[in-house]
Structure formats: C-alpha cells, structure tokens
Amino acid sequence: VSLEAVPPGTGTIGTTSQVTLAQASIRVGDTVSATAVVTANSGLAPSGSVDFLVNGALAGTASLAPQASPPSSATAVRTLGPYSAPGTFNVTVRYQGNATNSPSTSPAVVLTVTAATAAPTTTTVTPSANPVPAGAPFSATALVTGGSTTPAGQVQFFVDGVAAGTLNLNAAGQAVLNTTLATGTHSIRARYQGSATHAASE
Known about the structure:
Blueprint: E1 15-21, E2 25-27, E3 32-40, E4 49-54, E5 57-63, E6 65-66, E7 73-80, E8 87-95, E9 104-105, E10 109-114, E11 122-127, E12 138-145, E13 154-159, E14 162-168, E15 174-179, E16 188-192
Parallel strand pairs: 2-10
Antiparallel strand pairs: 1-3, 3-7, 4-5, 4-8, 6-7, 8-9, 8-10, 11-12, 12-15, 13-14, 13-16
C-alpha cells in the first residue's frame, strides 16, 4: 500500500508545481521573470503562496492567482536577480499548501548567467592650458566615453610615464588631475581601469 504524509494544517488533495523562466540565459546585472504554475490533482485551483528558490536558497515568495484555463491551476510570478557574477543556477518553486491542497516542489530549471559584454571606451586628456608657466597650478582633464551609459570607475594619470594619481570619474565621465610642471616638455596620459560594463582604455 502507498501512503502520503502531509504537513499538519495542509489538505490531502495532491498538487504539481512547475516553474518556467522568461529567458534561460541572461547577463550579469540583468533580472529574469520566473513563473510558477501549481495544479491541483482534482477540484479548483490551489490558493496560497509559493517560494522561489535559487540553488536551494529562498529568493522570494509570491501569491498564487487562479487561471481561467485550466481551472485547477494557479500561477505566481517573481523577478529574480540581478546577478553579480556569471554561473549556472537551479531555480525551483515550492508550493506551501493550504487547508485543501498538499505542498509540492517543482523540478529544477537551469538559469545561465553570462559575463556582461563590456562596451569599448575612449579616454582623452585635455590640458587646462598649453603652454603653462613652470611651477604654476595646472590641471589635466580625462574624459572617458563609450557605450550607451556614462562610464564609471577610476582613471590613473601618468606624467612623463610616472604614476601621478588615481581618481574617480564624476557623473560626466571626467576626472581632473591638479599638479605643477617643471620647465620642459612633458607627456600626460590617463588610463581608464574599466568596469563591469565598460572596457579599459588609454
């Protein structure tokens, strides 16, 4: 004989849970919509909540809403992510059950997170004046451009090949080095160190 033991406070009508992803593969920094479908073995659609699990860890909970067809099913939707690193993740849903329906857990579906493609950038340096008086305050502005958004991160300046400081880019993608120069001809360059969304450049 086959018997099923259900948690206290939950019903005896069995259920089946499934989860689907809007996309099987996303990039670092993106989110994905996950849809749970819980179907009762008989009777009306289950009610209550489902847990969304990623690699066995709780990623969120959502309430079920009945479907028009079939009438024995209910759905819940949850946004997962964003993810900060590439990898593969097992996504499952766990129906918690109610007074009529017993709990159930879905088979896992695999979500693949790939590295974001870094947009190419260009770094230019503009002096505040040229020529400049030796020993007088002088500034050089590095501007980093590229991609659909303004690059963020840090720029390292070099004066005559020697590191002269590392500065954060502002909201306009600029960093300003303040320094003085001795008499003579000098070279100033800047190296953008890149970010998750923008490639390095110099």
